[in-house]
Specification:
Layout (H helix, E strand, L loop, with lengths): L1 H37 L2 H14 L3 H13 L3 H8 L9 H13 L3 H14 L3 H13 L3 H14 L5 E4 L6 E4 H16 L4 H14 L4 H23 L1
Antiparallel strand pairs: 1-2
Length: 234
């Protein structure tokens, strides 16, 4: 008899627990919708974190990681979904890994993720990221291929944002590629400063306010002037 009562109590407890979990899940789903309506990022993160504990799904994890990354919380984003290269990841997951690893100055790992994205859906924007990362990792041949792809496939309305100034700004994507091509030319032949500057001038012709290109041109021009100055001092 005592055993029967214990089993009954245990069963009742399990039902109550199931009801409580369902109620909590419903509560946080409603909370998540409300926080989205209010544009409360911290509230959305809190709601999704609770939902991932109560009823975890990969879609929720990917969404939470994306929100972290979009809020410049890149370490938290990667802690949510990991850093491993996985061809079975969703596009959103791969995108988060790529952006966050790049932001955390992990170019080799970021490159793996951007390559997956480019393989799935090649476009000029991804080609720019790949070009930039391959220059950083010393793959000049690979960078050159993506630069040429990007120049060919850049449309007039495509823009790329830069952040080296206090106020971010955008330039035509084609100008951004020409700037990279100029830097690549110098990397591959340090004696051809004129050729590198000529390509950067093409970028500046498209957008005279391209600050980073102006800085690169100044740096290259000063290197060209250094040997002349040294020979005069001898």
């Amino acid at each position: 008899m005592k055993k029967l009562v214990f089993v009954m109590l245990l069963g009742m407890g399990s039902v109550a627990l199931a009801q409580t979990s369902t109620e909590l899940q419903n509560h946080y789903e409603a909370f998540y919708k409300e926080m989205r309506l209010q544009g409360d990022v911290n509230g959305v993160i809190s709601a999704l974190t609770h939902l991932n504990v109560l009823a975890p799904t990969q879609e929720r994890k990917d969404t939470l990681a994306y929100i972290y990354a979009n809020n410049n919380q890149h370490m938290q984003a990667l802690n949510t979904i990991g850093i491993e290269k996985n061809d079975g990841d969703s596009d959103l997951s791969v995108q988060v890994k790529a952006i966050s690893l790049k932001a955390l100055n992990q170019p080799k790992r970021a490159l793996e993720q951007f390559e997956i994205l480019f393989k799935r859906s090649p476009n000029a924007y991804l080609a720019y990221e790949l070009s930039d990362l391959k220059i950083q990792t010393g793959d000049n041949t690979g960078a050159t291929e993506h630069i040429e792809y990007g120049i060919t496939n850049s449309k007039d309305d495509m823009k790329y944002a830069f952040y080296e100034r206090q106020q971010p700004y955008e330039v035509p994507l084609k100008a951004a590629f020409l700037h990279l091509k100029g830097l690549m030319k110098y990397n591959m032949d340090k004696n051809d400063i004129d050729g590198a500057v000529a390509l950067i001038d093409e970028a500046l012709k498209i957008d005279p306010n391209f600050n980073l290109a102006s800085l690169s041109k100044q740096a290259l021009s000063s290197r060209k002037e250094e040997p002349a100055a040294n020979s005069e001092n001898k």
